[in-house]
Design goal:
The chain has helices at 10-21, 43-53, 71-74, 80-89, 106-109, 123-132, 152-159, 198-205, 247-257, 288-301, 321-331; strands spanning 4-7, 26-28, 35-39, 62-64, 94-99, 114-118, 136-137, 165-168, 179-182, 189-192, 209-210, 240-244, 262-266, 278-281, 309-313, 336-338. It is built from 11 helices and 16 strands. Bound molecules: threonylcarbamoyladenylate and magnesium ion (MG).
Length: 339
């Protein structure tokens, strides 16, 4: 299959919409990361997503909508607190898990009785969903296990020859995936930290539990709330060590311990401490927005090098830091050093 690169203009969006309506898979930009989209109501179309990604078949997909009202067709109930959350943070980087309606194929929900719904803010994402005329199931557009894709070039790298087209909407503004919040259980539960912070969720919902898979390694035998959380994720080929705590101390620790062939992911202020190594800076120590935008690009870039190990400075858990730290710790297989 020849994967075509479409410009995100009127013609490109219309063509992407036609391909999606026709049951094909298209890489689409969103404000968080690129998605691998297919008609969410067409099980056969959705199966091709799993094949293109090499995704485990027990890992459910998020369904994307362009207008809030579409949610009523996809879930059995929209509780009051879900409406308040949507009002506060949609369109935007948040996925709400609710009991699924009968129209959701098992290929999307993978045996669960719930479905994740997201209304993205990226104008191209919404335009292409409208052009397709159906809700769009879309996981991140990376090969399973690899870091997520935040540019059309990343998607081409992983999906060339495996999907019909990629719609190029430029670099993603948030850079880490959406926050996944479950409202399907007794209490609200944060399953994956993302572009909407835990603090922002609590401002609307009151107390929100953080699933332990966010901060800890979960054994293979344990049943987790978000199936995706149990897989090794976001991992470059070389092993990663995440260094948390005071950034100055962290930089000193890395400088002292790194081997000759090591690469470093660091905050801008510390880049000159690692002369002679391949260094990717992800933003200033206090600029969590920049860190979120650059983290996946940094992790992916090391795969084009022959570094033997990667040391990464990791922000603390406040605000967007919880999402950046979660991606880094997962990339590190929770090999974390606290300085
Ligand atoms: O920002 C995003 O959410 C991106 C863009 C494309 O929208 N999508 C994305 O999808 O990150 P994916 O498939 O890479 O991650 C979805 C996560 C997985 O960890 C999955 O297990 C979890 O959400 N998930 C999906 N549906 C679920 C459900 N019904 N219950 C629990 N977890 C669910
Ligand atoms: Mg993903």
């Amino acid at each position: 299959m020849n994967t075509i690169l479409l410009a995100a203009d009127e013609a490109g969006i219309a063509q992407a919409g036609r391909l999606l309506a026709d049951g094909q898979v298209v890489g689409i930009p969103t404000e968080t990361v690129y998605g691998l989209g297919a008609n969410a109501l067409d099980g056969a179309a959705v199966r091709q997503i799993f094949a293109a990604k090499g995704r485990p078949s027990d890992n459910p997909l998020i369904v994307h909508i362009a207008d809030f009202e579409q949610i009523y067709d996809l879930v059995t109930v929209v509780p009051e607190h879900a409406k308040r959350l949507a009002q506060a943070y949609w369109p935007g980087p948040m996925t709400i898990i609710l009991p699924k309606a009968a129209c959701i194929p098992d290929e999307v929900s993978c045996g669960l009785d719930t479905v994740g719904i997201r209304l993205p803010s990226h104008p191209v994402a919404r335009a292409v969903i409208r052009a397709a005329g159906v809700p769009i199931a879309a996981p991140s557009a990376n090969t399973s296990g690899r870091p997520s894709t935040t540019t059309a070039a990343h998607v081409m790298e992983d999906m060339q020859g495996k999907i019909s087209a990629v719609l190029d909407g430029g670099a993603c503004a948030v850079g880490v995936e959406s926050t996944v919040i479950s409202l399907a259980g007794e209490r609200p539960r944060l399953l994956r930290p993302g572009g909407v912070s835990h603090e922002q969720l609590e401002a609307v919902l009151g107390p929100v539990e953080i699933d332990r898979a966010v901060t800890q390694k979960i054994g293979d035998d344990v049943r987790v709330s978000a199936p995706g959380m149990k897989y090794r994720h976001y991992a470059p080929h070389a092993p990663v060590t995440a260094v948390c705590g005071d950034p100055e101390k962290g930089a000193a620790y890395i400088a002292e311990h790194l081997s000759t062939g090591a690469g470093v992911i660091c905050f801008d202020e510390y880049a000159d401490r690692f002369a002679g190594h391949i260094v990717h800076r992800i933003g200033a120590a206090d600029d969590l927005g920049a860190q979120a935008r650059h983290i996946f690009d940094a992790l992916r870039a090391f795969d084009e090098t022959d570094v033997t190990e990667i040391w990464a400075q990791c922000p603390d858990d406040a605000g967007l830091g919880l999402a950046v730290a979660n991606r880094l710790k997962k990339a590190a297989g929770f090999h974390v050093i606290n300085v």
